[in-house]
């Protein structure tokens, strides 16, 4: 998902709502050893900060940062309902130059942000801030295989090419929408000897409930704005038909509709793994 705008907040918010059970489970299953504070960077509107906050116990501390001022006070207000004042800190700060001492954190969480952040600068800062026993956890997607739907096959084959053209036109390079596929390399280059990936697939089948439909509508709006102009006219017609909830055979109404969301959770640490293996 892209740079912060009200539209993107809605798109990203609809993803969080639709897949909240899986995302909550993902946070619940994080290895939790924190003696030192936990950092959510950048926290955005604080969806994940709230989930992390629910795991904070006495003596533990949660810090959240974002360089967008508009998020800061509302998130402080929300966290007040979950945590004691001395258990959290929310601050406007630059992810590349955070005002904290080296090795101050035992867990750093970074979600869905490498489309806005420069991964190199952000990962260098995470490497500086994480303790020797701590872990950096990066949750990312790769737009080229993120949302899987039973599109007409010709359309499914054409969409990635359209997305690639759109990405090149907007960013000057085709890589911007596929942060997950470079993360292992980038984490290694940042200095982490141990990198693990866990792929999470979230599945929904028809009849889709409201939050799934809302998410799909935002996803189709994004595709329509971004990739659709690069489809030829006959494929645009098929896109319109497939995504039109007034049509009985649209994805919203088909009784056999299936949706799969692919995501990747990367975990990196400063301590080399004993087995030498980096696999999950
Ligand atoms: C796509 S949002 C993701 C937010 C959050 N992690 C989530 O998943 O809901 C990316 C966030 O990065 C923030 N951001 C971009 N550049 C930043 C920087 N240099 N320092 C701090 N935050 C930054 C934006 O304000 C935005 O909130």
Q: Can you walk me through this structure?
A:
- The chain has 280 residues and is an alpha/beta fold.
- The protein has a single domain (6-269), classed as Vaccinia Virus protein VP39 (Rossmann fold).
- It has nine helices and eight strands.
- The protein has helices spanning 6-18, 20-28, 47-53, 69-80, 119-129, 153-171, 183-189, 210-226, 233-242, and strands at 38-40, 62-66, 88-92, 105-111, 130-140, 147-148, 194-205, 258-269.
- α1 (6-18) runs antiparallel to α8 (210-226).
- The longest helix has 19 residues, at 153-171.
- The structure holds S-adenosylmethionine (SAM).
- Residues 1, 4, 12, 42-45, 47-48, 66-68, 94-96, 111-113, 116-117 line the site of S-adenosylmethionine.
Salient structural properties:
280 residues; alpha/beta; Rossmann fold; 8-stranded mixed β-sheet; 38% helix; globular; binds S-adenosylmethionine
Question: Summary?
Answer:
The protein has helices at 6-18, 20-28, 47-53, 69-80, 119-129, 153-171, 183-189, 210-226, 233-242; strands spanning 38-40, 62-66, 88-92, 105-111, 130-140, 147-148, 194-205, 258-269. With 280 residues, the chain is of the alpha/beta class.
Please outline the helices and strands:
Elements: H1 6-18, H2 20-28, E1 38-40, H3 47-53, E2 62-66, H4 69-80, E3 88-92, E4 105-111, H5 119-129, E5 130-140, E6 147-148, H6 153-171, H7 183-189, E7 194-205, H8 210-226, H9 233-242, E8 258-269
Parallel strand pairs: 1-2, 1-4, 2-3, 4-5
Antiparallel strand pairs: 5-8, 6-8, 7-8
Helix pairs in contact: 1-8
The structure holds S-adenosylmethionine.
């Amino acid at each position: 998902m892209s740079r912060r705008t009200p539209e993107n907040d809605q798109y990203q918010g609809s993803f969080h709502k639709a897949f909240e059970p899986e995302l909550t489970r993902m946070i619940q299953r994080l290895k939790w050893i924190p003696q030192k504070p936990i950092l959510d960077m950048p926290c955005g509107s604080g969806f994940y900060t709230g989930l992390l906050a629910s795991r904070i116990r006495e003596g533990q501390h949660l810090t959240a940062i974002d360089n967008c001022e508009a998020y800061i006070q509302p998130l402080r207000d929300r966290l007040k309902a979950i945590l004691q004042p001395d258990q959290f800190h929310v601050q406007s700060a630059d992810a590349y130059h955070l005002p904290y001492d080296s090795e101050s954190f035992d867990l750093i969480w970074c979600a869905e942000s490498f489309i806005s952040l420069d991964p190199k600068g952000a990962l260098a800062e995470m490497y500086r801030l994480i303790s020797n026993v701590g872990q950096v956890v990066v949750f990312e997607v790769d737009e080229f295989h993120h949302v899987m739907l039973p599109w007409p096959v010709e359309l499914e084959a054409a969409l990635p090419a359209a997305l690639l053209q759109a990405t090149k036109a907007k960013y000057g390079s085709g890589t911007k929408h596929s942060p997950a596929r470079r993360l292992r390399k980038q984490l290694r280059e940042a200095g982490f000897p141990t990198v693990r990936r866990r792929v999470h697939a979230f599945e929904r089948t028809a009849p889709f409930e409201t939050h799934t439909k809302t998410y799909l509508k935002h996803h189709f709006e994004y595709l329509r704005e971004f990739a659709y102009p690069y489809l030829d006219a006959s494929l645009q017609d098929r896109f319109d038909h497939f995504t039109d909830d007034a049509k009985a055979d649209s994805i919203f109404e088909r009784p056999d509709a299936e949706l799969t969301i692919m995501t990747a959770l990367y975990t990196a640490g400063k301590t080399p793994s004993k087995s030498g293996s980096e696999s999950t």
